[in-house]
UniProtKB/TrEMBL annotation:
Coiled coil: none annotated. The keyword Cytoplasm does not apply. GO terms for cellular component: plasma membrane. It comes from Ciccaba nigrolineata. GO terms for molecular function: proton channel activity. This is OTOP2 protein.
């Protein structure tokens, strides 16, 4: 990537300096972009992404069924090629921008915050472990598998490492060279992440469907059903009898949720980079707020304690649910597990809804101004919150219709109906609370006595008693300073200023408690469905009403969006906590 527009940028800068010299009283404005038609470049990159996404979606969905002549190694071949192209482009981007001094003229301070990049690295580590387990699993019987099955996880591991490094150092870039190539490269990266996400979701859904069939049927009937309908992985046809092979197989399926979240996190960050291509930041209106994350300061610990109680209780419910539902065939234990699951979620969702309503009421008394500046990161956060919530909305409304229209109704149906209604209410109230928090200006410190406090804090290491001995109580010694226009420093003021902590108003404290409680509660509500607690497949009401084919398809399509919503809400609530 060269510096093709270097001379043009120099002439543009000289013309701007000349224009500023004629108008010395006007503040410097944002430089005008040299791009003739920004929307044309964006449109071309979007069309490229749409076609690649449709191709990948077609192959991934076709590869999940036996009667369609598309195999899983065809899907892996396409994904491998796409990841290799993205790796080459990222290396090209990093080398090109490092050699061109005018490639990145400004950075977006709101893009790629540290907690988002930290979450990306956490999910990347688990994704690498998953790839190691995949390589070990497929290597156990490489003689009866296609080579692409082993090449794919190796390439995916390299892709995760390169992309994570790229997003860590370049998430804030506003690129100004080779704009169309950069846009197409970023859209290709985004599409590749979405294709990997679709493949992981499909593979996980097929695996769970096979597990439930195996639990209730003999091996011969199971293989016959696979031939009639859903495809088994090509690895299923090979013998995996050793203990190490079973560990690898179960291990990488348990790590799928982390890889799914990694792909979605990376897609969101790449989209913000794509929006920032060719963008100039107006530093006069684009304020950079350096906020410090203090978890255990200026808090009552109520939100943290309640959130930890919910988190630990949810982990206990998850373990009992997995043992009683997935490891037992007795209907009584299944009913007990469903009852326990619904009661816990009803309590949790009810508390979260009340807390969100309370937070929205507190915002009515908040005196901070609304932040109306252009912010692609915040716009994407709001869009993802609203869009991802549609998945859980769809499941809840389908459940409500099935429960109301079905007969007879039992206690589990009543709990399921309450759970669905509270799920809709909690998503709605939480979105309102988060979106309003993201649009608030950070708190401004009180600068009323800054000059006075600066003089006082300069004496931090001075002996207080010595100061009080040398300054008379009458204040006559301070009279010259007062006459000269500065405020006199009294010893009692000095002691109060050095010993009294900074005050935080009650609104900010309550907003922090609410944000921390919601953050921890969303973590457990992400963990439970991501690691197997899915009552939609275990409750017979929806299955009997919609059928064994329609209802699983609805859940498989909508549930990944609901799971992503929880993790994205955690990141957004962390930002609301820091901004409060």
């Amino acid at each position: 990537m060269g510096c093709g527009h270097k001379d043009d940028k120099a002439s543009l800068a000289s013309s701007q300096i000349a224009s500023f010299s004629h108008q010395p009283h006007q503040p410097p404005s944002t430089p005008a972009s040299k791009e003739v038609w920004k929307k044309g470049g964006r449109m071309f990159s979007i069309l490229l992404a749409v076609h690649l996404a449709l191709l990948a979606c077609t192959l991934v969905s076709s590869g999940a069924f036996e009667k369609i002549a598309v195999h899983d190694y065809d899907v892996f071949f396409l994904l491998t090629v796409m990841m290799l192209i993205v790796i080459i482009w990222i290396i090209f981007y990093l080398v090109g921008t490092s050699r061109c001094p005018d490639a990145i003229l400004c950075k977006d301070s709101h893009a790629g915050p540290i907690w988002l990049r930290g979450g990306l690295i956490l999910f990347a580590i688990f994704s690498l472990v998953m790839d190691v387990f995949k390589i070990g699993y497929y290597s156990s019987f490489y003689s009866c598998l296609s080579a692409i099955k082993i090449i794919y996880p190796i390439v995916q591991a390299i892709f995760v490492v390169v992309q994570t490094y790229f997003l860590w150092i370049s998430a804030k870039d506003c690129v100004h060279v080779h704009l169309n190539v950069t846009r197409c490269g970023l859209m290709l990266t985004l599409t590749t992440n979405l294709a990997v996400w679709m493949s992981a979701v499909t593979d996980e859904s097929v695996h769970k469907a096979h597990s439930k069939l195996k639990k209730n049927m003999t091996e011969e009937i199971f293989r016959w059903i696979l031939k009639a309908g859903m495809r088994s992985s090509s690895a299923e046809e090979c013998n995996c009898n050793s203990q190490i092979c079973q560990i690898f197989k179960n291990g990488y399926f348990w790590l799928y949720p982390f890889n799914i979240e990694y792909s979605l996190f990376a897609s969101a960050m790449v989209y913000v980079m794509w929006k920032n291509v060719g963008r100039f930041i107006d530093h006069h209106s684009h304020h950079t707020h350096r906020l410090k994350f203090r978890l255990f300061r200026r808090t009552f610990f109520v939100g943290i304690v309640l959130g930890l109680i919910i988190l630990v209780s949810g982990l206990g419910v998850l373990i009992l649910y997995e043992v009683q539902v997935n490891s037992s065939t007795e209907s009584s234990k299944k009913s007990q597990a469903l009852t326990m699951y619904y009661i816990f979620n009803i309590v949790c969702l009810g508390l979260m809804s009340l807390v969100c309503i309370g937070g929205s009421v507190i915002y009515r008394f908040d005196k901070r101004d609304m932040d109306r500046h252009k912010n692609p990161t915040r716009t994407l956060d709001v869009a993802l919150l609203m869009g991802a919530a549609l998945g859980q909305y769809a499941i809840s409304y389908y459940s409500i219709v099935a429960i109301v229209a079905s007969t007879p109704r039992d206690a589990i149906s009543a709990l399921n109906l309450t759970y669905a209604l509270l799920m809709i209410a909690q998503h709605t109230f939480q979105n309102i609370f988060i979106i309003e928090g993201l649009h608030r200006q950070p708190p401004k410190e009180d600068h009323k006595h800054d000059s006075h406090q600066k003089d006082l804090y300069g004496l931090t290491f001075v002996n207080i008693n010595a100061v009080s001995l040398r300054v008379p109580d009458s204040g006559s010694a301070l009279a010259p300073s007062a006459a000269s226009g500065t405020e006199a420093i009294h010893p009692s003021d000095l002691v109060r200023s050095l010993t009294a902590p900074k005050k935080m108003n009650w609104r900010r404290k309550f907003l922090r408690e609410i944000s921390m409680f919601l953050l921890l509660s969303n973590i457990i509500l992400w963990i439970m469905p991501a690691f197997g607690a899915r009552p939609q497949f275990d409750n017979d009401t929806e299955l009997n009403f919609y059928g064994d084919s329609m209802w699983p398809a609805i859940v498989d399509i909508c549930l990944p969006f609901g799971i992503f919503y929880r993790m994205h809400a955690v990141a957004s609530l962390l930002e609301v906590y820091i901004m409060s």
